[in-house]
Amino acid sequence: MKILLIFLFVTFTGQLYANDFRIQIVGNFPGAEGQVVRLLEYADMLSYHEREIGSDKVDKNGKFTISLIRYQPQYVFFRIDHARMGFFIEPGQTYQLEFDPVDISQLDDSRNPYLDPWYFHFRITEPAETLNQYIDKFEEEFHEFLIENFARVHQGRNRRLFDDFRMHTDSLFGHIENKYFRDYYEYKFAYYYRIANIDRFDEQMRTHLLGRQVLYHNTQYMNFFNAVFDTYVFAGSRNIQGSDLRHAVNRLNSYHALMDSLGKDTILRNEAIRELVILKALQGMHGNPDYRQQNVENILNYINTNSKFPEHRSISRNILFEKNNLVAGAVSPSIVVYDENDNPVRIPEDFKGNFIYMGFWASWCESCMLEFIALKELFDQYHDDIVFINISTERNPVIFDAYLSSANYGWLDFHFRHDFRILDAFKVRALPTFVLIDNDGNILDYPALKPSDNLKQRFDRILIQRLSPGTQR
Asked: Which of 14, 53, 79, 90 could connect to 73 by a Cys-Cys bridge, CB 3.0–4.6 Å?
């Protein structure tokens, strides 16, 4: 009985505690009925790896609701169709979002939404004087200041200009006690003081970074950090030598040697800052031919396993994912499409043992339709050895159905059914996009050659490799 009471007490208090951090987002989006609204966050603001944290389908009345738990304020953003819109959330808040009416089915994709995404305007109804209002008002002031003083700001070292503006904004926002906003406010100014070269570098570091808590989720803190350390290790520090970096990575393959190399710079004595700077440096080393890539990944994996800072372990994983996703040899993303009978088809799992040549297209894309001429010739020659799949991103499925009725190419055709996770999985940002997947379900080429780009020669090499496994891919 005592154990049961303890269990009930812990469960009850846990629920109360969680409710203090529950965030409710209630939206009204006329014209978007049936669309999936996805809520995402940046897993960190070094790799900028995007992570979905909630979703809901807009119902027949235009309503959607997303609920989540977060323990600190942060920036989040919606993905609706090709659109992307963001705002700030705080634990325990409920946000009422009112979107301007729009008929998504009538949007014109021919303007290429991959290069020029939609933006759906919305208003947030929330308690007066909250984080979004603070930041919006502050950004409006800053934007007007930069517009009026663009030339003078870029001349640099104009301290009085910034000091006068800060006195003005202090009079408007100095009373606000919201910690996230206070930090946002400070590091917005620190960022511009930095790029305008107003204060000495070491003075800025002592004021804004050294001995201060690392604000991983504050967008302006991380903007400042990234601006300061973007090229610092490779070109900004007098105390860090490129030869030491290459020796630590290429010869010693050592995290500790890399920490020691950066520790020669007094600005980087703080362990948390130094390791975060190392992560940013490793991000720059990845793909740089001056550094052994396997060693770079070894050090990132070491941080993932051994760092005392959980945020750094997560960042190292995200850097590795972003750098290795869709590269040759990586496991292909798994997607699900549906055939004409609504049967699910898993790609690449349902075609294991076969090479797959997959393309994303739409009828409004003239170059897509032209590629089909060359693709048909390749299909006729190689369809016994390679599975050909085309996925239509057509907004109106009726047009896709009409295409299926009139075309008789022979390859597998699917419609993406407005599942934009499929496009995100393969980072489709332009049409046509092609990908080549090997018979083990791994990426062979991304982006792959278009059919008109002498793809026949590439296919011949694949088939030779299949018959003679020792042959170079």
From this structure: 90
Joined tokens for residue 140: 């409006």
Angle between helices 455-467 and 366-382 in degrees, nearest 10: 30
User: pLDDT tens digit string along 345-385?
Assistant: 999 999 999 999 999 999 999 999 999 999 999 999 999 99
Taking the domains of the chain in order of start, what are their residue ranges? Answer: 2-127, 135-324, 335-467
CA atoms within 13 A on the CB side of 109: 20
Rounded CA separation 225/270 (Å): 14
Q: What DSSP designation does 333 have?
A: P
Length of the chain: 473
b/e code 344-376 from CB counts within 10 Å (16+ = b): eeebbeebeeebbbbbbbbbbbeebeebbebbb
Q: Are 353 and 439 in contact (CB under 8 A)?
A: yes
Comparing CA positions, the residue from 241, 251, 233 lying closest to residue 291 is 251
Q: Rounded CA gap, 407 and 401, in Å?
A: 10
Dist CA 433 CA 184 (whole Å): 39
Answer whether 439's CB lies under 8 Å from 466's CB: yes
CA distance 329 to 96: 45
Pairing mode of beta strands 443-445, 433-437: antiparallel
Q: What is the dihedral of CA 135, 140, 145, 151, to 10 degrees?
A: 100
- Is residue 6's pLDDT more than 90? no
What is the Cα–Cα distance from 411 to 428, expressed in whole angstroms?
21
Listed residue (312, 278, 287, 322) closest to 50, CA to CA: 322
**Which CATH fold topology does 2-127 show?**
Immunoglobulin-like (2.60.40)
Q: Quick one: CATH architecture of 335-467?
A: 3-Layer(aba) Sandwich (3.40)
CB 114 within 8 A of CB 84: no
For CA atoms 323, 221, 212, 161, the dihedral sign is positive
The yes-or-no verdict on residue 43 having pLDDT over 90 is yes
Task: Reply yes or no: is the peptide bond before residue 447 cis, omega within 30 of 0.
Answer: yes
**Which residues fall within 8 angstroms of residue 123, CB to CB, at 6 or more apart?**
97, 98
How large is the average pLDDT for residues 302-324? 97
